[in-house]
Amino acid sequence: MPILPSPPNTASSSSVSGISIELMPILPSPPNTASSSSVFGISSVCYRDATATREYLKQLENKPKEQLMALLTYQNKEGESVGMIIARHRHATTTQAYLQLLENAFKNKKLTSEQFTTLLTQQNKEGGSIGMFIACHQDAATIQAYLQLLKNVLENGKLTLEQFTTFLMQQSKEGWSVGMFIAHHQDGTTIQAYLQLLEKMIENGKLTSEQLTTLLMQQDKEGASIGMFIAGHQDAATTRVYLQMLENALENGKLTSKQLTTILVQENKNGESIGMIIVAKKDNARTQAYLQLLKNALENGKLTSEQFRMLLVQQNKEGASIGMFIAGHQDAATTPAYLQLLENALKKENLTSEQLAILLTKQNTDGWSIGMIIAFNKDAATTRVYLQMLENALENGKLTSEQLTILLTQQNNNGWSVGMFIAHHQDKTTDQQCQNLKKIIPLIEKIEKTSSLLESLKLEEAIGELKNLLLFKNDIGITDSQKISLNKKIRNLISDFNSRISEQKTAEFFEFLTKVPDTSLFYISALISQLNLWTLDSTALNTVFLKLHMLPKTSFGYKEGQLALATYYVSLFSQTEKMFTASELLVFLIPAERCEHPMLGMGYNMLRNYFIEGNTAAVQGATSSLASQEAAPDIILKKVLKSLVLLVSNDLSAFRTLEGVLNQHRKDNLLDFYLEKTLFNDSSETENTSNFFKSSPLSLFPTNKSKKIHITSEQLQELESLIPSNQQHNDVKESIAVLINEFNKGSITKENLFEKLRNSINEGNPDYLFVGRAMTSSVPSASQ
What we know:
With 784 residues, this protein is mostly helical.
């Protein structure tokens, strides 16, 4: 069982309490020199109540400036001044009165900027200053009053930039600064006020990027910085404010990417960075804020891939990285967000395949990797996201088969691997996903080997490997998406190989592709490659068409095959200006419908032009009409054509009949055939596929007169849609249903039915198919 990364210690309790104790010396004994004014001042604030202390401060306002400075800077044996003792022992009202005394004296020129600086930077024997005591012992209002005092005197030009940064950077003997005390001891509102002060100073040019970096990187004796204290002791909102300050400074050029990286990779004595401390808090919001900072910086070019990698592979003394902390301590939403960050960085080449492999194979001192922790700790959905990321990286060439094998088989100190954890701790679906991933590794390995042989121009060896791959049987038991991915890789290999060989070898290889059996995993690639790489004669094209036509619609490569076929026909249309026949247009439209080809509209325009005008009006004319407003009759014609293409796509006899109807250029014949296929279609009335391209005399509409019409609501709605919108009233719609009912009762013949339906569709719109005005023909209506 794993020992998960321990939550980081931002500062051990002993160190924090040690500082607190060190900065709280035993009060000094009553002074023996009571005659001294300075000693009397310290005695007053040490041994008298708050009222007496405030009275004493009022008296100081009237002292000459030399005496005032002497009284305020006097330190006892422990190094404490009046201000330090007030800040440490008195309540807020008294401390604020002291701060007001300083501000008034400064305004009235009783204190110079040097004297003001001296007062605030004086330290006792343990290194504590007035500001540190205020940050440690006073309430939020007093701390904000102190910060406001600094801000005011700086903005009024009373302090130099160096004097201001001295107040903020000064450290006690334990290494604690004012900011650290605030971050550790105060609430979110107070630390946010401190961060806001820093941000204002940055914006106004009062802090340089170097000074900001130094301030944020200061560490106490345990190695903790302000950012680490915020991450470890403040709430999620305050942590996000800190991260936002960094991001703003980065975007505004106040921090360089190197400075940001330095701040984020800085470690305490336990080897923990700000990021590690954030993700160990088990708080989804703050972790995602940290990941968002990295994502934005990466996408905006503020982090290099090496800096990004450095942040993610950094490990603490126990070998745990940010990714391991996320996998071990975060919820199901945050771990996928981390994995998505990696995947996006990989896609955008902000992370190399080598960097990803290093990141994922890193192990802590117990031998645990990110993947192992996910597989042991997380739910099935998160584990599947991890496996999918690996698969995507493999498919896109971002992981090699060797790297993936290492990730799945790498073992921790107890001999457990990712695959073993999944098998024992995850559900069957997740385990199957892992097993499928393992199954494709040998094939990827062979593809990589073949590609390497091609790169080395070892063509004979490469063709041998490629042929063996093309004969690999489709019985591997992997998902369709994995089969599609493998086939894409094979097609790339085929294309690469074809570009490197002679014409004679090309002919031989083409012949081999035509003989790849349909039992092959890569059968679809053999067919698609013929379309993609060669100009086929009619026999070869018809053969590919038939093979693709016979593929089951549920086949993993069905849609890709139809897309390749339709695209091939589009290329033919663009290469020649010849008149295309109805048959040629139909063999494009059938696969185009099956794959929703982007040029589908062009195809129907060409078929429409052919039917109306007797020509295809060229591709350009067909496509340009798409942009114009189509008249209702034209829309009706396209609806009829589209429906017929779908109806005959799997009925080879009907395909030939439709071709004949289109060649007649008669609207009534076209509509009668549409009605025939809609109302009387019988899927069993098909011919063998081998006859698809053989012309044979067919009766126009063979009819079983005893057959009744069983129309669905969808079919009825489709018929109604052919009625012009200005005629779509209830009487006309109801008449369709009545006519069908009359036919089923034997009251009217099929010919009467078709004639009456045509009239319903034609009512008020005699030019409903645009054909009558364009062409005339002696061919009678099929129903006559």
